[in-house]
Write a structure and sequence with these properties.
The chain is mainly α. It has a domain at 26-83. It has four helices and two strands; from the N terminus they run E-E-H-H-H-H. It has a two-stranded antiparallel sheet. Helix 1 (30-38) packs across helix 3 (52-64). The chain is rod-shaped, with a radius of gyration of 23 Å.
């Protein structure tokens, strides 16, 4: 916010207009990749199912970190597989 001098005068901090923001995201990779690798056989068995990707994603999330169904989407966004 700023600083207060010994005389009691408040000096506001300068606002930097040239501050660049970078959008960096960190994703979990290891556990999701291992679970996906272990489910490759199941993926082949489900190849005729129209929702096989959704089923696989739910299985991976529940195996890594059991969460309520309503939180699956937010958990999937944190995994590298969600890319």
């Amino acid at each position: 916010m700023g600083s207060i001098q010994s005389s009691g005068l408040f000096i506001p901090r300068r606002v930097r207009s040239s501050l660049r923001e970078t959008k960096r995201e960190v994703f979990e990779y290891g556990n999701g990749a291992l679970a996906h690798h272990l489910l490759r056989d199941a993926e082949e068995m489900l190849k005729d199912q129209p929702n096989r990707r959704t089923l696989m994603a739910c299985a991976i999330i529940q195996a890594i970190h059991p969460t309520p169904i309503r939180l699956l989407a937010s958990r999937w966004e944190k995994l590298h597989l969600g890319e």
